[in-house]
Design brief:
It is built from 13 helices and 18 strands. The protein has about 475 residues and is α+β, with helices and mostly antiparallel strands. It folds into three domains: about 70 residues, 2-Layer Sandwich (Uridine Diphospho-n-acetylenolpyruvylglucosamine Reductase, domain 2), CATH 3.30.43.10; about 120 residues, Uridine Diphospho-n-acetylenolpyruvylglucosamine Reductase, domain 3, CATH 3.30.465.10; about 210 residues, Vanillyl-alcohol Oxidase, Chain A, domain 3, CATH 3.40.462.20. Strands 10, 11, 12, 13, 14, 15, 16, 17 and 18 form a nine-stranded antiparallel β-sheet that branches. The chain has a five-stranded antiparallel β-sheet with strand order 5-6-9-7-8. The chain binds flavin-adenine dinucleotide (FAD). Flavin-adenine dinucleotide (FAD) binds next to β3, α5 and β9.
């Protein structure tokens, strides 16, 4: 067959494929030549966006079920994307997007919310707040609540309440065999175990019921230090975390602000450490417990104070503009003091690529086993050390080398990775290292039974 004849054949195939799929789903079915294809395939993470042969912009569980059945019948690799913050690896088969499935229903009496696949934490927070309730959301309200929860979820109140996935009652999930399953501790317990922390390897969650907590206000914010003035800020913060109770969750972020217009004048070119605090006690107690942090050295900016939970995104104040980035992390048992200056330097002006170093304090309720076991690993970790860099064509490899070198001094005390903070493809061995021994094999076994041809591709940590 000539090239022209075969491409005409392929086009006819695609045209009939799209027509057939479109007749079965309510959402749009888009191929590369369609208006809106680029917007639909692209999420927050702009590095190597998906290049799918077809995108299904799902509007309902039925759409998801039809799309999965269609992909599987044609042995087409497929994946799912909500807001695309955790995207690591492009797919060329079918992409199912869930951003239109963003319903949230709050039951204030039972203190639970039903959250659809594509709803963001912002949408859950806004639905819960009028009832005096809040979800166990993370630093950035624009993240997809489901995609976050299937990795475990380390929230702003994590040391008080534990992993977000420990507070899920039920999932509705379309498994790769095309079935819609209602998954709870009683029905499909193996899937319930896998979906809480396993990272979505067993299907598309179309909705989940989560517990809400009675939180309307927080004491929180950030303190900003110049690391040239207070070079031991990480060490002092690290010792202070050893003394605080579980109501206090905190983190340190170190970076060097670029010397460019748009960055406030006093911060341009400056290497700084932000200490981020979320405290679920009174404002007076919050002020008292954070006093030692204020005394570390000259404070360049202080936003600590009482704030309504819906404003909790201001604590980390993360960039809202989509961009390309790569990042990595390690869960560690301790912070060896001799390794901390290296972390500060890794985010300093001499770093080979702009890098944000983060250290989150774990422990507290995160370290306790949930009533119903889950796939979340490394509960005994005391800190999460992370690195993140915006990347371009030329510096991706530079960033990777820099991240490896920055994390190397922590390998001795590392338990493994957290899936949600791995913003790069992981090898099979690295992926297994995101779980407790034996759990990756168990996850693979569960996934293989539902997906014998391995067509479902996951974002977190996949190659
Ligand atoms: C700025 C920033 C801040 C963050 N802060 C936190 C934090 O405080 N705490 C924390 O724990 N994590 C945090 N994360 C990690 C974040 O939770 C994950 O990256 C999460 O996947 C992002 O959600 P998303 O909707 O953007 O996922 P997407 O990128 O849309 O999806 C990522 C992957 O999730 C899986 N997935 C998506 N939808 C479904 C579904 N319906 N069913 C099954 N699997 C699905 C798929 O494998 C998909 O590839 C942060 C990430 C960023 C970039």
């Amino acid at each position: 067959m000539s090239a022209t004849a075969s491409s005409v054949g392929a086009m006819t195939d695609t045209t009939s494929f799209v027509a057939e799929l479109s007749s079965r789903v309510r959402g749009r079915v888009l191929t590369a030549d369609a208006d809106g294809y680029d917007v639909e395939r692209t999420g927050f993470q702009r590095w190597e966006a998906h290049r799918p042969a077809v995108v299904v912009a799902a509007t309902s569980t039925d759409d998801v079920r039809e799309a999965v059945g269609f992909a599987v019948a044609r042995r087409m690799p497929w994946t799912v994307q909500a807001t695309g913050h955790g995207h690591t690896t492009p797919i060329e088969g079918m992409l199912i997007t869930t951003r239109r499935m963003n319903g949230v229903r709050v039951d204030p009496v039972r203190r639970v919310a039903w959250v659809e696949a594509g709803a963001t934490w912002r949408e859950v927070i806004d639905a819960a707040a009028p009832h005096g309730l809040a979800p166990l959301s993370g630093s950035f309200p624009d993240l997809g609540a489901v995609a976050y929860t299937v990795t475990g979820g380390v929230g702003l109140l994590a040391r008080r309440h534990g992993f977000t996935s420990d507070h899920v009652h039920r999932f509705d999930v379309v498994t790769p065999d095309g079935r819609l399953r209602h998954v709870s501790e009683h029905s499909e317990p193996e899937l319930f175990w896998a979906l809480r922390g396993g990272g979505g390897r067993v299907g598309v969650v179309t909705g989940m019921e989560i517990e809400l907590v009675c939180v309307t206000r927080l004491f929180g914010g950030s303190l900003l230090f110049d690391v040239a003035q207070v070079s031991d800020v990480l060490e002092v913060w690290g010792s202070w975390t050893g003394e605080v109770d579980d109501d206090l969750t905190s983190a340190a972020t170190v970076l060097t602000y670029p010397d460019v217009a748009g960055v406030p004048e006093p911060l341009r070119g400056r290497s700084v450490a932000h200490l981020r605090v979320a405290y679920c006690g009174s404002a007076d107690e919050g002020r008292a417990v954070t006093r030692p942090l204020r005394e570390i050295g000259p404070v360049l900016a202080d936003t600590l104070g009482e704030l309504p939970y819906p404003e909790s995104g201001s604590i980390f104040d993360e960039p809202e503009e989509p961009h390309p980035y790569r990042g990595d992390n390690l869960v560690v048992r301790e912070l060896p003091p001799e390794a901390l200056p290296g972390l500060t330097a890794a985010a300093g002006p001499d770093a080979p690529v702009f890098t944000v170093v983060g250290v989150r304090h774990l422990g507290g309720a995160l370290a306790r086993s949930p009533r119903v076991p889950s796939a979340v690993g490394h509960r005994s970790g005391s800190y999460l050390v992370s690195v993140l860099s915006p990347v371009s064509e030329t510096d991706e490899r530079v960033a990777r080398r820099h991240h490896d070198a920055t994390l190397a001094p922590f390998i001795e005390v590392a338990l493994g990775r957290r899936l949600g903070f791995a913003f790069r493809p992981l090898s099979d061995e690295e992926l297994a290292g995101a779980f407790d021994p034996g759990d990756d094999a168990r996850l693979r076994r569960i996934a293989r039974e539902l997906d014998p041809h391995g067509l479902l591709r996951i974002g977190h940590g996949s190659r």
